[in-house]
Design goal:
Elements lengths: L1 E5 L2 E7 L16 E3 L11 E9 L2 E10 L11 E4 L2 E6 L2 E6 L5 E6 L5 E7 L2 E6 L3 E5 L4 E5 L14 E3 L4 E4 L5 E4 L8
Parallel strand pairs: 3-5
Antiparallel strand pairs: 1-2, 2-4, 4-5, 6-7, 7-8, 8-9, 10-11, 11-12, 12-13, 14-15, 15-16
């Protein structure tokens, strides 16, 4: 569970494995349930809840439901910027309005799983399993970059580091790449 203070609100993000879509046995109901209606509710394996409170009183809630894979919740999987909550969940990036949690857009970014995101200039940089993706805050993919291997380093080195004038990337086998903010290889 992660709790974040933003302006006068408190946002709580947590995994909710007990939730089942349209079940009367759920421990809690959510104001918004976001899932792909083409999926069977019985296929859903990954569930992430978002709660917004004001003066210690919950004012709205949402749950994201998908089939996974899901890399897990961490400080790297979400970002708050200008009244928007961006969350990497499964292979999608979600953009919500704060405080009402209305979905502004959802975009499939990596074809496997997203590990995290960071701000880069006026955009977002998504650390996917297969690709590094620059995406605008409006949901437009600006570029994608793939390496020789996946973007999870076996030695625990940081896979994505934004430097002053470039991005340093390290893949599974510790191959190092430097790319510009335009997505082109520097070295």
């Amino acid at each position: 569970m992660i709790e974040i203070s933003y302006q006068q609100y408190k946002l709580t993000i947590l995994e909710d494995d007990q939730y089942t879509i349209e079940s009367a046995d759920n421990l809690r109901e959510f104001d918004h349930v976001y899932f792909d209606s083409s999926l069977s509710k019985y296929q859903i394996t990954a569930k992430l809840a978002i709660l917004v409170s004001f003066n210690n009183e919950e004012i709205t809630s949402a749950i994201l439901c998908d089939i996974g894979p899901y890399a897990g919740l961490s400080e790297r999987t979400f970002l708050i910027d200008d009244k928007h909550l961006y969350i990497c969940f499964t292979d999608d990036l979600y953009c919500f309005n704060i405080p009402n949690l209305a979905l502004i857009w959802k975009k499939r970014v990596d074809y496997c799983v997203n590990h995290g995101l960071q701000k880069i200039q006026n955009d977002l940089l998504v650390h996917g399993e297969l690709e590094i993706i620059r995406i605008s805050k409006l949901g437009k993919i600006e570029w994608r970059f793939g390496g020789l291997d996946i973007w999870v380093n076996k030695d625990g080195l940081p896979e994505v580091t934004i430097l002053a004038d470039r991005i340093k990337l390290i893949d599974y086998e510790s191959n190092c790449y430097y790319i510009g903010f335009d997505g082109n290889t520097i070295s």
